[in-house]
Amino acid sequence: MKCAVNNSGYLLTVAIITAVFWSGCAPSADTLSADAPSADSTSQGALPNIIILLADDLGYGDLGSYGHPTIRTPNIDRLAAAGARFTSYYAGAPACTPARAALLTGRYAVRVGLPGVLMPESVEGLPQSEITIAEALKESDYRTMAVGKWHLGHAQPSYLPTANGFDDYLGLPYSNDMIRPWVQTDVPLRMHGNDGPIEGEVDQATLTTRYTERALQFIRESSAGAFFLYLAYSMPHLPIHPAPEREGQSRAGRYGDVVETLDWSVGLILDALEEQGIAENTIVVFTSDNGPWLHLPNRMLQDGNMPWHAGSTGLLRGSKGTTYEGGVRVPAIIRWPGRIAPGQVFADLATAMDLLPTILSASGVAIPDDRTLDGESLLPWLAGEAPLTPPSDRVFFYFRGGILEGVREGKWKCRLSRQTDSLELIPEGTEMVPELYDLELDPSERYNVASQHPDVVARLRARMAELEREILGVPDAG
Ligand SMILES: [Ca+2]
Questions:
Q1: How would residue 392 be classed by pLDDT, with cut points 50, 70 and 90?
Q2: Where residue 42 falls among pLDDT bands split at 50, 70, 90?
Q3: What is the pTM assigned to this prediction?
Q4: Number of domains forming the structure of the chain
Q5: Ligand 1 centroid vs 106 CA: distance in angstroms?
Q6: Ligand 1 center to residue 155 CA distance, Å?
Q7: Domain harbouring 440, CATH code
């Protein structure tokens, strides 16, 4: 196969690009495309390539384009400037496993059976009955690869990426803190390939660079046809590790170094698309799986982890693990030069569950109609071809694990939870006080206006009860 010859040239090329980058110069197009197949995928009718770049625990306020004052993210910001940037985009859940289940299936994690976070000893995983974005795209001859953190099960072969639509895989099966001293497990944290572990204990300082190299290799080998790349970075989830070349570079400290390492990676991927001549017809999504981990359990505060090794929610209340906005509202960017006009900012509600129908409709693949999807295609809206479903009909349900704690409808958010901002739990039996926020005038959830709008509270609580009846089997209390 041709790619066997190309591999050594590729690795050398990556080394050159990396060296050139760190010396402050952009790699030339000739350097990257020297031995790569050129493809004319920008012609009318060609299937778009799809790339999803998913950061782990990156907060709403962590990017330059989302207002961070000192973290530099010029490459992610140029992606945003060339596409659509969302200011009310929700991850499917405020934690890793359920958020990923929702993103890849277009369904709330409770429907998928994965409401909680999987651990090294967990025996659960993504059921074969679910249809992932990758599986759906295989219907249309897409070449598919997952790189990075999976976290949708590893105890059985049927849970692995390669059994769920991905031709190839390289990455960690779960979070990078799931090892001693932070998690009491004897399972080593190892890089996995298609069929399981491929080596010993991983060196976390190499993670982002290795993921990037593998992703670039996949893009180069796949650019003659349509491909789907799902690159789920392990960072900036604790323990944070920048690439060694980035250490001490950011004004925002070690956390800034890590986010700037991700930005470097995104830059190389965008450059590769340009140099392969496929940028015009490639949909690139950049987002995060949940908000920043601001309330660390004591187990995490050892072996070098510091409380400030976590991101920012910007103006949002709450953080990872909560159903306040900071837990689930995250940065999201979609660029598709061929269809989506540059420089757009969307303030209306969008969710991770919209990605599956959006991507499948862009690819001309039938959207599964034998199950409930919790998103809809944003494409007509993003492309300026048709209005989106009226805001009052678009809702997002806030789950904490298997518990439904809130709903957003248009500008209104109703929350009913036993959990406080700082993750403390109000004792069972204490009556819960409904919270109602107007997220357009009060995105920081400072002013509970439930008593001024009892009708809105009643309507939104009814919507929650309806969903609980549907998917949680909770009987109607009347
Ligand atoms: Ca996460």
A1: confident
A2: very low
A3: 0.90
A4: 2
A5: 18
A6: 20
A7: 3.30.1120.10
Average pLDDT over residues 299-310: 96
Q: Which residue type, as a one-letter code, is found at position 359?
A: I
Same domain, 207 and 309: yes
Using DSSP bridges, classify how beta strands 84-86 and 190-192 pair: parallel, antiparallel or unpaired. Answer: unpaired
pLDDT at 58 exceeding the cut of 50: yes
How far apart are the C-alpha atoms of 86 and 108, rounded to whole Å? 20
Structure tokens at 218: 């996949």
218 and 303 in a single domain? The answer is yes
Residues 400 and 373 in one domain: no
**What tokens does 63 get?**
């990017």
Residue 151 annotated to the active site: yes
The answer to whether position 54 is within a domain reads yes
Catalytic residue among 3, 68, 151, 192: 151
For the residues of 75-129, what is the DSSP string, one character each? HHHHHHHTSEEESSEE-SSSSHHHHHHHHHHSS-HHHHT--S---TT------TT
Alpha carbon of 91 to ligand 1 centroid (Å): 10
Q: Is residue 108 domain-shared with residue 86, that is, in the same domain?
A: yes
pLDDT tens digit sequence for 206-250: 999 999 999 999 999 999 999 999 999 999 999 999 999 999 999
> Cβ(294)–Cβ(310) under 8 Å?
yes
Its domain, for residue 420, covers 391-472
